[in-house]
Design brief:
This protein has 167 residues and is mostly helical. The protein has five helices and no strands. Bound molecules: cytidine-5'-triphosphate and magnesium ion.
Length: 167
């Protein structure tokens, strides 16, 4: 198969895990829609992560990453455990992004541009690297394509009323 199609297939657990939390944000599954930071403040008096980062998003995103990995295994592009790891990495990177946003004084949902689209991708690539051995051309493609895919997905999510902001 074409190398760039394969690259997009391999990164799917990261993409789909990252898109999972907004899909469930109207529900409180098993009471897990609680902020990961427990509502606590950092030393600067601002929230550590904010209300946009919940246990529900972290757990469901990780599980969906595993499910995608499981489905891809059938085609030889990963595994359940690699999918779980990639899903968790995406959501962990997303939390690092929120941590940085809060330190910069940005409110929940504020548009952080490339930080919003590259935080989850960078973590997903780095943490899966020992298992996937991404090539430099593949990483470059993902760094360029992801902000575009992310923007389009967010506009769709906004129109479907899954997201409060179109970014
Ligand atoms: N979400 C969640 N748990 C996560 C990540 C996301 O519940 N770990 C849900 C929240 O409802 C969040 C929505 O998905 O509002 C959109 O995610 P995102 O854009 O990453 O969060 P923001 O609300 O923009 O917050 P931040 O400014 O911290 O990025
Ligand atoms: Mg956002």
């Amino acid at each position: 198969m074409l190398w760039y199609v394969e690259t997009v297939i391999r990164i799917l657990p990261v993409y789909i895990a990252n898109a999972t939390p907004p899909v469930f944000s109207k529900f409180n599954v098993l009471g897990l829609r609680r902020p990961v930071d427990g509502g606590k403040l950092w030393i600067d008096g601002r929230r550590i992560l904010g209300d946009g980062k919940t246990w529900q998003g972290l757990i469901l995103g990780t599980l969906v990453g595993g499910l995608i990995g499981f489905l891809l295994e059938h085609f030889g592009y990963g595994s359940f455990s690699l999918g779980l790891l990639m899903g968790f990495s995406a959501l962990a990177g997303d939390m690092v992004g929120s941590f940085i946003k809060r330190r910069l004084g940005m409110k929940r949902g504020a548009n952080a541009g490339l930080l919003d689209s590259l935080d989850f991708l960078t973590a997903g690539i780095l943490i899966s690297y020992p298992f996937v051995r991404w090539k430099s051309g593949e990483i470059l493609l993902l760094l360029i394509a992801t902000p575009i895919v992310h923007r389009i997905a967010n506009i769709i999510g906004f129109k479907l009323k899954l997201k409060k902001e179109p970014w």
